[in-house]
Specification:
The structure holds two protein chains of two kinds.
Chain A: H1 3-13, E1 18-21, H2 28-35, E2 42-44, H3 49-63, E3 67-71, H4 75-78, H5 81-89, E4 94-100, H6 116-120, E5 126-129, H7 136-148, E6 154-160, H8 161-165, H9 189-201, E7 205-209, H10 211-215, H11 219-229, E8 233-235, E9 250-253, H12 260-268, E10 271-275, H13 281-284, E11 295-300, E12 314-317, H14 320-329, H15 337-349, H16 365-375, E13 381-384, H17 388-397, E14 404-406, H18 417-427, E15 441-446, H19 447-450, H20 457-463, E16 467-473, H21 478-487, H22 503-509, E17 514-517, H23 523-532, E18 537-542
Parallel strand pairs in A: 1-2, 1-3, 3-4, 4-6, 5-6, 7-8, 7-10, 8-9, 10-11, 11-12, 13-14, 13-15, 15-16, 16-18, 17-18
Helix pairs in contact in A: 1-2, 1-7, 3-5, 3-18, 11-14, 12-15, 16-17, 16-23
Chain B: E1 16-25, H1 30-40, E2 45-52, E3 58-67, H2 69-80, E4 85-90, E5 96-107, H3 110-122, E6 126-130, E7 134-141, H4 143-151, E8 158-163, E9 167-170
Antiparallel strand pairs in B: 1-3, 1-4, 2-3, 5-7, 5-8, 5-9, 6-7
The chains are: A alpha/beta, B alpha+beta.
């Protein structure tokens, strides 16, 4: 069979049933073979390759399965860059297949040629150029293995046109050995024993849950550990959704825009069990003053993360799930009641309060997010964009057990929310072959980020995806405006967006119901309609433009030095 | 989170040379993967050399980077993340064996020739090519030795210098076998 067919058969061997793909001259052969698969592989076609890559990312984050992208050479390939970099920063498994000009033309500046291997070198876990059709099946096997094991990440396969048409025998390898690639999955038993010992001596333990918890499917295990030992849990942005059963253990978001009580927990703990986190600068504040009283047990599958940003007193290399299983086996019982009383007392005095109605009578964006969180069901998948909408979502949407947050944490990619929601909606299989009722998918975006990929409304319409969209329009690029207010004497350079179109009308012309709200009285009804309607719908909410994300730990300051209000 | 800020790696003042030996699969592009990784993590490569290793399908690289101990440890971990990296071995400075080859083309007119021949002999270097106006001299040794040999000649006498970069490995185990 030809290379294109070998690719499709290999994808089927990997259990791929959905690809996010946009055609072009260098991938016609692959699309021709896709055509022949009937409904074994569903083709989801975005309106832009960047959005297609974000959609595959949202699909991967919400389903746990690798997202697959197929695009053409040159501009098709370069359009995926932001999507690949986003996935790389947040450790999302993607397999991106790019068409390439024929091997003989490589290096000649041929039409639609780009050195995509060179370009994606720093933003992929690995990338491959396939030179012969006979090497293709093995390369696909490698790509899926690398994307999904160890610390997950995007892998790119560059496939020249002539290789797609070249004939070769197809046989898919059952397993593959990669010399030099042996991720440490099981934590060292001695290190786990030491962690248990440290825990047993700790009076003020704290679990810091990061994206690694969710990537290793260890959410339930970590929740069990917290519940059974009475250890409070704080979450990094990527760790949202790790929610203990016992409400008094939930201490929510930490970092630059974390709650005061979450950051208080960090600064006063004597032992931090850091699970699948990379201590990003947005989480630690000044790393020298981070968690000054705590010994840090750092569990991560990537040894390079340990000691990179913050000192670790006890490193454990391994998957969160294997290490936490080890911890759960210990016959431990802790008395954390005094610690919990301290934390709960502090929380009572310093709540994270969403009900701050703006004096102007406009809709308070924080309250809008909190209201959406109250109205939408507990199993909602929330996709956010980047900026104020993202921080308010983390602060106020609420993450009872079973909720999922899809957000671009590391790269901070504006324009991520809408396509990520599309990918998540595709993952719920809303077309009926899924016996379970699909989970609702809500997108919360700002006016800036929404306009970075709004062409994807057409994709929602085409596949009748039940994506619920809440666009919070404050007529600014709000997060940067906030920084300008704080640090640049309110000189709003390049952040004013007071001429936005009607997003509701845009939705309508795309064939999607749209509503516009301007007044707090309209919020409840509009959000209820959004949650209840069967298909997609968009609510364009004009919100108070002056609202700021608070509290805020200024850059370079310690977590305990947050600003609570701006005078 | 906003797009507005970024922080840069703060370089420690106490930097020193670290020699690292890296065994890699001999796949196309592996060299550029390694060097670009080191650069983008904020380190400079002072010297690099590469050649086939014991197994024909593998390459061994010797690189020298400047950094503090913590930074160099981080580099080693990052190098391991490249799928084609099989083994990263820091070279122990106390038990290091290193060599470099330098080729130096010197202006050698009648008046100079005898002096050059003498210096070559003192340094146990070798003249490997000669013409009416020039010599090509080969010198093998530690990097310092190559440096000091080159320093013997006035800059206007030197036409061209080519050096291999250092190859290094940990020396033999000196403990008596029982």
């Amino acid at each position: 069979m030809n290379g294109a067919r070998i690719l499709i058969e290999s994808l089927l061997c990997e259990g791929v049933d959905t690809v996010f793909a946009y055609t072009g001259g260098a991938v016609i052969s692959i699309f021709d073979e896709l055509h022949g698969t009937g409904d074994r592989i569903r083709l989801v076609m975005p309106r832009h390759e960047q959005a297609g890559t974000h959609a595959a990312d949202g699909y991967a984050r919400s389903t746990g399965k690798p997202g697959v992208v197929i695009v053409t050479s040159g501009p098709g390939a370069t359009n995926t860059i932001t999507g690949i970099a986003t996935a790389y920063m947040d450790s999302v498994p993607l397999v991106v297949i790019t068409g390439q000009v024929p091997l003989a033309k490589i290096g000649t500046d041929a039409f639609q040629e780009a050195d995509i291997l060179g370009i994606t070198l720093p933003i992929t876990k690995a990338n491959f150029l396939v030179r012969k059709a006979s090497e293709l099946a093995e390369t696909v096997k490698k790509a899926f293995l690398l994307a999904t094991t160890g610390r997950p990440g995007p892998v790119l396969i560059d496939l020249p046109g002539n290789v797609q048409r070249e004939e070769a025998e197809f046989s898919y390898p059952e397993s593959i050995e990669l010399k030099g690639y042996r991720p440490t999955v099981d934590g060292h038993p001695k290190q786990i024993q030491t962690a248990i010992h440290l825990l047993s001596q700790s009076a003020r333990p704290l679990i810091m849950a990061g994206g690694g918890v969710l990537r290793s499917g260890a959410g339930k295990l970590v929740e069990d550990l917290a519940d059974s030992l009475g250890i409070p849990v704080v979450c990094t942005l990527m760790g949202h959704g790790v929610t203990p059963e016992r409400e008094e253990l939930r201490f929510g978001p930490i970092g630059m825009h974390g709650s005061l009580y979450g950051n208080y927990a960090i600064q006063n703990a004597d032992l931090i069990l850091a699970l699948g986190v990379r201590f990003s600068d947005r989480i630690t504040g000044n790393p020298d003053e981070f968690a000054p009283q705590a010994r840090i047990v750092h569990v991560d599958i990537d040894p390079a993360e340990i000691g990179k940003n913050v000192r670790a007193d006890l490193p454990i290399v391994g998957s969160v799930s294997s290490v936490v299983q080890g911890l759960l086996k210990a016959a431990l019982s802790l008395d954390t009641s005094a610690w919990l009383r301290d934390l709960t007392g502090f929380r009572m005095e310093h709540p994270l309060d969403p009900v701050r109605l703006d004096d102007s009578g406009q809709i308070s964006p924080q309250w809008l997010v909190a209201t959406a969180g109250r109205i939408f069901p507990d199993n909602t998948i929330l996709a956010t964009d980047v900026g104020q909408n993202q921080m308010w979502s983390a602060q106020f949407f609420g993450f009872p057990r079973g909720r999922t947050l899809l957000t671009s944490g590391g790269l901070g990619t504006m324009g991520f929310g809408l396509p990520a929601a599309i990918g998540a909606a595709v993952g719920t299989d809303p077309w009926g072959s899924n016996k379970n009722p699909p989970r609702p998918v809500l997108m919360i975006s700002g006016d800036g980020g929404f306009q970075m990929n709004l062409q994807e409304l057409a994709t929602i319409r085409r596949y009748r995806l039940p994506v619920k969209m809440l666009v919070m329009d404050n007529a600014y690029l709000g997060m940067v405006r906030q920084w300008q207010e704080l640090l640049y004497e309110s000189r709003y350079s390049g952040t004013i967006m007071d001429d936005n179109p009607s997003f509701a009308a845009l939705a309508e012309v795309m064939g999607i119901p749209g509503r516009t709200i301007r007044h707090p009285d309209e919020v409840e009804a509009a959000l209820k309609e959004l949650a209840a309607c069967e298909g997609p719908m968009l609510v364009h909410a004009h919100v108070a433009g002056s609202a700021n994300v608070l509290p805020m730990v200024p850059v370079g300051k310690a977590l305990g030095q947050a600003v609570e209000r701006i005078s | 989170m906003s797009r507005t800020t970024g922080t840069t790696r703060t370089q420690d003042e106490t930097l020193s040379d670290h020699t690292i030996s890296i065994l890699v699969n001999n796949h196309p592009g592996v060299l550029s993967k390694l060097t670009s990784l080191i650069t983008r993590r904020g380190f400079n490569i002072d010297s690099i050399s590469a050649g086939p290793a014991k197994d024909a399908d593998m390459y061994r690289l010797t690189i020298i980077v400047k950094g503090d101990d913590r930074g160099v440890e981080q580099i080693q971990k990052q190098l391991y993340k490249i799928v084609d990296t099989v083994k990263v071995s820091p070279i122990n400075p106390a038990n290091k064996v290193e060599r470099e080859i330098g080729l130096i083309k010197l202006r050698a007119t009648n008046g100079d020739r005898q002096e050059i021949i003498q210096l070559v002999s003192v340094f146990k270097a070798e003249i490997i090519d000669s013409g009416p106006g020039s010599f090509v001299v080969e010198i093998v040794g530690t990097s310092d030795r190559v440096d000091s040999f080159i320093a013997m000649f006035a800059p206007q006498k030197i036409i061209e210098v080519a050096r291999t970069g250092i190859v290094a490995m940990n020396g033999c185990d000196k403990k008596q076998a029982r």
